Amino acid sequence: MTHEKWMLLAIEQAKLAEESGEVPIGAIIIQNDQLIATGFNRTIQNNDPSAHAEICCIRNAGQKMGNHRLLNTTLYITLEPCIMCYGAIIQARITHVVFGASDPKNGIISQNKLAEFSFNHQPKVVANICQDICKRQLKTFFNQRR
């Protein structure tokens, strides 16, 4: 499958987040062209500030794979990861990160702040896949809240 087709599955996860009253951010993890895990924002639902879509998805994948290392996997996220989620990505040793919309306020990748750090693992990153859909989903959500 192409990046766009996988990202559409992450977008479906974001819709589940929105239906639950959460900010619509979704994530999936694949390995060898197979879906391993899904996740969406659950911070409000779980009363847990760390329950971002990426963290939920990484937790689900670890349980399914029976390992805290998610080697040779790709994480698709509808919004660029924050520094907390990027730390979890590094700890899980996720190989590739593909995100939809950039996050100028909290995103760690597009702000070029990663050069300041020396991490023991660096995933390969692909940005702006289905960017318009991801941005529109978030913008619509926040416009309805205001």
TrEMBL record:
The active site is at 54 (proton donor). PROSITE patterns: CYT_DCMP_DEAMINASES_2. Zn(2+) binds at residues 52, 82, 85. Keywords: Hydrolase, Metal-binding, tRNA processing, Zinc. It holds the Pfam family MafB19-deam. Its cofactor is Zn(2+). InterPro entries: CMP_dCMP_dom, Cytidine_deaminase-like, MafB19-deam, tRNA_aden_deaminase. It catalyses: adenosine(34) in tRNA + H2O + H(+) = inosine(34) in tRNA + NH4(+). It comes from the Bacteria. It is an enzyme of class 3 (hydrolase). The keyword Lyase does not apply. Binds 1 zinc ion per subunit. Gene3D superfamilies: Cytidine Deaminase, domain 2. Residues 1-111 form the CMP/dCMP-type deaminase domain. Catalyzes the deamination of adenosine to inosine at the wobble position 34 of tRNA(Arg2). Homodimer. Belongs to the cytidine and deoxycytidylate deaminase family. This is tRNA-specific adenosine deaminase. It comes from Candidatus Synchoanobacter obligatus.
